[in-house]
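Q: Can someone sanity-check these two? First one:
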Amino acid sequence: MKFKSIAAACVLGSAVVSLPAFADCTGPFTAPDLTFFLSGASGFDGYLKSVADTMFAGKTIYYFHDNADKSDKGYRAYKGTMAKAAGSVPAGTCVLLLKRSAGGSIHGVVDLARGLRSTVLDVSSGACSLISGTDYVCGTKGVDPNAANYDTAGAAGLIPDGGASDVGPAMFEGPDNAEYGLPTLSASEQAKLSTKAGFSSMMGYVTTLAVPASTTIVNAQYGAMLKGTYYDWSQVDPAINTGNTQVVVCRRFPGSGTQASYNWRFANFPCESASGGSVPLARMADSDGVTAYGGFGSGLIGSGTPADPYIVDPTFGYTVIENSGAGDVRSCLTAAQNHTDYTFTGEDGKTYKATFGQSSDPFRAIGVLSSDSAGKENGWGWRYMDGKGYYSIASQAADAALNGAVTPTGVAPSKANLISGAWSFAVEPTLQYRNAAAATNVFGDTAPALSGQKLDFFNAFTAAATDKANATANWIAALPPQNTPNAPLFDNNVARGTHYGNMCSPLQLLY
């Protein structure tokens, strides 16, 4: 018996030795077994974080960018141990998931298809510092395509392995949905992307709290303010006739998936871009405080540096502020409500300042935001569609504190209305990967098709993102026919209809 025990111990010992050796995933800066770079949409970063949490066992280490309040400012990362195997990726594998959101969805489409290196979070001991617990704040590395010094040796970041987009890659046509300096993908370039429909994501109508709950805002009026054809709040509600009555718009850059969603909703772009009947949404150059100084080409105050930013003066009238990420839009809305100056980086990489602080009154602003920003309200709130009043997406009820004696009307941005199709301003985000090698870039890199462990990780991540079990947030719903709704109650996070990933196709109710 003793001999058998010794023999058994030897067998067990040899089995332990043969197990794969994994990186120490508890060390914040130890090298991981697998690094995956996912680039694109900022509008559902909160959901992607929760998806990563479902895939990792135990505590996930979080990395943020330059903000001690743990907001990403366009870049974030997660490090954790795979809870279960995903194809060739064994359970226990230490994974570092890098997420770039700055600039929006186009960086998960164009950068991916063309194999372009771009800025990414620098997860290293020299670039990061501890916030608390296992949360770190880090700098970035690399330079974005078409930025100054992009092709300088050592200046570039990483090529994305996968992409995330609020709408499908085909929606990113110029000029309205293509970021500065990034031309539209050709048909052959689009063919290099394999796209998987994700889920239904609710977009929102938002205003600063200076807009009374009693003001009714219909869909066409919101669109008219985004376009600048309505430039004063008195055109929406004649009762708004004191203080700052000019319309302020806090929107995103072209190339943002969230902005593309609003371009689709309010200008039908690019679905009918050739019809001649579509009026594009206004840009920052259309602001009265810019045109008053001769526009960007002549006489704009400032030099565009952090020390001497270009000035966008909202006291002149209709004002549009273009922002890189969802967090920047929220900051823009908050600054407008609090009438404090707002400094931001433009699409061209220059520094701008909206001088809200010149006024002693709050500004009445609208915004371009996914409902992923629910719970982050600060001086602004969610409005009913084609009605009046404020709604709390977090509590799934009318916001009594903001509405006061006002009884809301219209369609609420509730999960029940998203599932039924009553909340019609919803898009279907996609996840995509490169199925063929990209063209050689300026560094001589030829990004290959995604394969091996990275492809298996992407497939597992996509499966988790599309699973109704994970679609628990109040602003998303899983899609049919990949998931089956719990008819007739429809209470299991699955939408009753789908665009089949094509936002130029009407919503089709399947249940």
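And here is the second, same format, sequence then tokens:
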Amino acid sequence: MTNCFFDNVSYAYQDPTAPTLRHFTYDFSSSKTAILGANGSGKSTLLHLIDTLFEANEGTITIHHQQVHQRSAKAIRKHIGFVFDHPENQLFAPTVFEDIAFGPKNQGMSKQAVTKTVYEAASFMRITDLLDHSPYHLSLGQKKKTAMAGVIAMKPDMLLFDEPFSGLDPASLQTMIDTLNQLEQRGHQIILTTHDVDIAYQWADDFLLLKEGTLLAHGGTEVLENESMVQEANLKLPMLYRLFQHTAERPKTVEEARSYMFSEEGGPCV
């Protein structure tokens, strides 16, 4: 797992008096982390800092045992893969194959190794039938899969996802959740941003709540079960927690909730 530690980090865009991230300190040590907050809370900025796309105005960031600065950024970025909110921002080649192949080629792989890597990544994302297609003519779900395949092909240790669930239909949404779980099982450390409390509650092990660039709270599921804290972050309590908060059960998925709702005889247990 890639070590990633923020120590009193602040970052501002054009106006240094209005920082987007304020005195942020955190050790990203979980393999499944969800960063939550309303629009403008600093979620995407945080990912950009992890990916070394931005450089902190104050404080220090240490990734893979190296302090982030201009000289170390390129080496650090080899360990990190970033999937943007809008996949169009990272799809540019004439075909899906060439898009996925771009990263491995730039890593200096041989032609044979590139081809093998592309097919492995496409197979994992179940898009081998799209390799000859233009990425511009794909559905949103297919574009996201292509962007993910391109990142996976570079074999990073850490994967960053900015709002990976936005715009997906229910079937594609479940596929995304399953894929993230499979990536974590393959040894990738995953950090994602989302404003969808229900999905985060189901998927992540570690949670960060942001508001106006400030870290309000962090920890396990108890963070999203704290009504006053969640409301302060301009979010809502997870639906499953609201349904079961007066019981001893804490289902994280609809399937778990169903098993708690009905006994073997078919009667309600709550």
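A (reply): Looked at the second one. Strands lie at 4-11, 21-28, 32-36, 58-63, 66-67, 80-83, 158-162, 189-194, 206-211, 214-219. The longest strand covers residues 4-11.
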